[in-house]
Amino acid sequence: MPTWMNKENVTLVIAVLAFILSTISWVNTLVSNRKKLRISISSYKMIASDASLFYLSIENLSRLPISISRIFLVDGESKYECSCVPQKVLEHTTRSGNVVTEHAVFRNLAVPISLTSLGGIHGYVYFPVSSANSLVPPAELTFLLHTNRGRPIELKSLLNQQAFEAELS
What we know:
The chain is of the alpha+beta class. The chain has one helix at residues 7-33, and strands at 35-47, 51-60, 66-75, 78-81, 88-96, 99-107, 113-115, 120-128, 140-147, 153-158, 163-168. Strands 3, 4, 7, 9 and 10 form a five-stranded antiparallel sheet that branches. The longest helix has 27 residues, at 7-33. The chain is elongated, with a radius of gyration of 24 Å.
């Protein structure tokens, strides 16, 4: 047996390996649990020149649940909060002659939005805006999402850009 392989040196090697492995595990947990959202804008519509309607897909890419408590739309100097209460935003009726064959009512998402670990949701988000400051595509938009996990997330996008994501620790 080599002279360097005594009890003290073996204990030291085991302690150093345990420290390295626990540090790797801690960093892995920190990276997989950080706040990370992906938002896709599927469609955009102005409603009667006093509201903006976005069809959004929101994905939680984190391993911890997250709750979105407020969503703001920032357009230059103007800041608009989304409607928190579900209300009718779109209505679609299909007719065959005088007979209604299909009728669908679409409502905006209720805020707060709770997303499970690695979960997602999609739906309409309704922003009442003043007609003087209505958005004209392709304006640069900033969404400000307030969550239960730290500082608000600021996401910037052009209306013609389909998806963007934010990673914050």
